[in-house]
Amino acid sequence: MTPSKTAITAAGVTLLALGLARCSSTVEPTGWIPRDGSVGGVITVSIPSLAAPRLSLGGAGSETRAVAFGFPGPSRFTFGAARRLTRARSTGLTRALRGGSTASELIVTFRHTALGAPPVGSEVLRGAAAAGTVGHAIRARLAAIVPAGAAVAGVSPAILAAKVRVADAAQRDAIAAALRQDPGIAGVAPNRLIWLDETPFYRRVSPDAGATGPTTPNNPLYPFQSWHYGLVDLPRAWAITTGSAGVLVAVVDDGIRFDHPGISANLTSDGYDFVNSADSLALCAGGTISNADDGDGYDADPTIPATYSPDSTGTCFLPDTIGNHGLHVAGTIGAVGNNGIGVAGVNWAVRIRPVRVLGVGGFGSSYDVAQGVLYAAGLPADNGAGGTVQPPVGAKIINLSLGSPQSDTTLQRAVLSATQAGALVVAAAGNGGSSTPEYPAAYPGVLAVAAVGPDGEPAPYSNYGSYVGIRAPGGNFAFGDATDGVMSTIWNFATGSPEYAWAEGTSMATPHVSGVAALLLSQTGSLTASDLRSRLTTYATGTATAYGAGLLNAYNSVTQQHGPPTQLYARLYVASTGAIGPTVSAQADGSFRFMRVEDGSYLVYGGADESNDATIGTPGRVWGAFGGVASPGAVTVLGAAPNAVSFTIGLPSGTLSNHAIATANTLVIGGYLQGHIVDPATADYYKVRIPAAATYTFETSGWVGACGVALEEATAIGLFDGSGTLLTFTGYIDPARFDYCSRLTLNLNPGTYYFGVAGLLGHRYRIHARAGR
Fold first, then answer.
1. What is the distance, to the nearest Å, from the Cα of residue 444 to the centroid of all Cα atoms in its chain?
2. Quick one: which of 337, 478, 535, 715 has the most CB atoms within 10 Å?
3. Euclidean distance between CA atoms 730 and 674, whole angstroms
4. HSE on the CB side for 567, CA within 13 Å?
């Protein structure tokens, strides 16, 4: 840039030098201008919460809005489900109703000494031979003491337990009292019911919409998963491992659909169905069906035939159009990644063993669930035909997205046996929004998982308490948008076809933890359950609270470090032109110093790189400026006098008052700011100085996830010249691939420009300015 021919008064050599420096596009020496100044100080890093206020959606309007900010705003869009939710049909299940037990069944547990058996959890009880011997001893003992009107309906030798069915439910308590008279019996209790937590689903009605894009992974619906995977730093972990088919995870839930193309390749064929056919559901349309609804009780096929939910009264059941809770959970753990179909799992490759323990009504008995846990762990389980069934190997990770507010000895023994066999049991903390323990999550040795929403804060429904070990994304529909939920695989029972849906709950948080544990095993298969638990909780982020040790972090857990290595840098910008000056690295204590600085006026910025890439100002990395990033303070260098500038950097947020060019925030080339659309009827404005004729790009992105999803804004950008005249504008980058960010790339001459960012939803965004494309 050629210096302007402004009249220069004879105010002394120093002021003349300063004037010339301000007209220069570079901080390189210009011959006789003094360059013996110094600028130094200390950069302090402070990372605030990701949470941003959620504002109301703008009113309905035309497809393209042109409002006061002077350029077309972002177009309205739909994802095939209501953006603002009307609550799905309630399941009508109160916390009290979710308890209960089967009317005519008792569970009898034995003292190991009475059977001549080792204690529950012993290695001897893991084999088929011991199962046969102990099972025979249990049956023989019961044959002598079971009173008339009752019969043995099942035996589980691995946990020294049996199921007794009573012919007349009215006699159940009397028969239980009679059985307790035997000194060899440790306990007799009703066969309690275990339920799925209430989980509303919101559909994606076009499961194959979108096309394979450049995103990693290339699953077309990945943008809707980006917030919950981004929140736990999965994309960086995927650069190291995407899973392995050598890792086996068991999902103990309501069954699976082997014909769902999004996950079928990662399902094993050795699953099992432990839902008995004795329990029945009263249909609101009349008649009854069994909770198994497949006509054959225990069997080797864990396929779910349908799902039903109680009506608002909780007295009868209605068929669900979409469902299969276990399929949704399994999809988060291991939907096939990078195959151009639907969604991606935490593991792109993994083996998932589906174990069905909950029936079509969303519940199952504690005895059935216990058998599923045993089978998942590779232990002998009741096969429903007088014997036992056992898979060839046990899963090292067992996911239990189910629970009850009541403890149960049978289930506790099964969980103990599984953990003693080496499995990491991961369970949902519960959706009661209270500190009341949920079981099996609260049993010793279980890693209980609480839920957070897209703001990283605990979801209002999530349980908490001393039994909770960690927190993970579970969604939060209370924000009022379907995309605030967790996206995964689901089944449409009305059409018999695969679909994808959003859901919320600690049930959805739990498979994120199970999935990351599987990633760790894909790296190091020798890790024990204790190793896995320690790795997950030690490298969680945030502070320990009643919601666990911290927020799950996949990258930290995989690398065993708290974030990638970083190096702080300081950078000078010429205040008058925006030209990038020298960049120096800071010391470990954050101190830095620029030497031999030419006289002039400068802005001082600081930032951190990652993994020694020497790149600062990238969205998501710490960044800031002396005087504040929205309106940096200029530092004047005159002669050799030192200039002290110390400041704090973090995730750089602009002001919320930049709704006019006159109050625009400052943005430099090579830097970024975080913004938040306060009102969709107004835009946020930014001022940028272009130092030289070249190509420049201005681009928005989300704070954590994809633009337009959950708390992230869908944007448009307008560019104005120094006088405020609109030069050009742009909308979404690629809505066909669900990319609702904006990118404006163009050639600009030196000078001052302004650009506005408009939004549709009243959400948050980042804006980055860079040289080149």
1. 25
2. 715
3. 19
4. 11
Q: Which residues have C-beta within 8 Å of that of residue 168, sequence separation ≥ 6? A: 104, 149
Residue 605: closest CA among 673, 676, 687: 673
pLDDT given for residue 11 in this prediction = 30
Where do the DSSP E strands lie in 329-440?
Answer: 349-356, 363-365, 381-382, 388-389, 397-400, 424-428
Catalytic residue among 24, 101, 233, 253: 253
Q: Is pLDDT above 50 for 207?
A: no
Q: How far is CA 500 from the centre of its chain?
A: 16
pLDDT of 56 above 90: no
Predicted local distance difference test score (pLDDT) of residue 94 = 37
Banded model confidence at residue 278, pLDDT cuts 50, 70, 90? confident
Q: Is the dihedral of CA 140, 145, 149, 153 positive or negative?
A: negative
Average of per-residue pLDDT across 686-701: 97
**Is the model's pLDDT at 693 over the cut of 60?**
yes
At residue 656, the pLDDT reads 83
pLDDT given for residue 57 in this prediction: 36
Rg from Cα positions in the chain: 31
Are 732 and 75 within 8 A, CB to CB?
Answer: yes
For position 380, what pLDDT does the model report? 98
Candidates 134, 116, 114; CA nearest to 125 is 134
Q: Are strands 243-253 and 349-356 parallel, antiparallel or unpaired?
A: parallel
Q: What is the DSSP string of 264-321?
A: GGGB-S--EE---SS-EEEBTTSSEEESS-SSSSSBS--B----EEE-TTSSSEEE-S
Reading the block at residue 520, the tokens are: 């760790």
Secondary structure letter of residue 85 according to DSSP? P
Contact 440, 403 (CB under 8 A): yes
User: Residue 81 has what pLDDT?
Assistant: 46
The confidence score (pLDDT) of residue 31 equals: 43
Sorted by sequence, the CB contacts under 8 Å of residue 261 that are 6+ apart come out as 341, 342, 498
Q: Could you report the per-residue pLDDT of 514-539, keeping only the tens digit for each? A: 999 999 999 999 999 999 999 999 99
**Set 325, 328, 512, 768: catalytic member:** 325
In this structure, the chain runs to a length of 773
Q: Residue 555 — φ and ψ, nearest 5°?
A: -65, -45
Cα(126)–Cα(158) distance, rounded to whole angstroms?
Answer: 7
Judged by phi (left if over 0) then psi (alpha if -120 to 50, else beta), residue 144 lies in: alpha
Q: How far is CA 511 from CA 250, 409, 473, in A?
A: 11, 25, 10
Task: Write out 97-130 in H/E/C secondary structure.
Answer: CCCCEEEEEEEEEECHHHHCCCCCCCHHHHCHHH
325 is catalytic: yes
Q: Which is the catalytic residue, given 101, 507, 514, 576?
A: 507
Contact indicator for 572, 39 with CB cutoff of 8 Å = yes
Query: Active site includes 228?
Result: no
DSSP-based helix, strand, coil % in the chain, nearest 5: 20, 30, 50
Q: Is 127 exposed, middle or buried (0-12, 13-18, 19+ CB in 10 A)?
A: middle
659 included as an active-site residue? no
Confidence of residue 598 (pLDDT cuts 50, 70, 90): very high
Strand partners of residue 447: 426
Task: State residue 550's pLDDT score.
Answer: 97
The string of pLDDT tens digits covering residues 415-443 is 999 999 999 999 999 999 999 999 999 99
203 phi/psi in degrees, rounded to 5: -80, 150
Dihedral angle at the C-alpha atoms of 676, 682, 688, 692, nearest 10 degrees?
A: 120
Q: Report residue 552: phi and psi, to 5°.
A: -45, 135
Q: What DSSP string describes 568-605?
A: EEEEEEETTT--EEEEEE--TTSEEEEEEEPSEEEEEE
Q: Decide if 325 contacts 195 (C-beta within 8 A).
A: no
Q: Are 580 and 573 in contact (CB under 8 A)?
A: yes
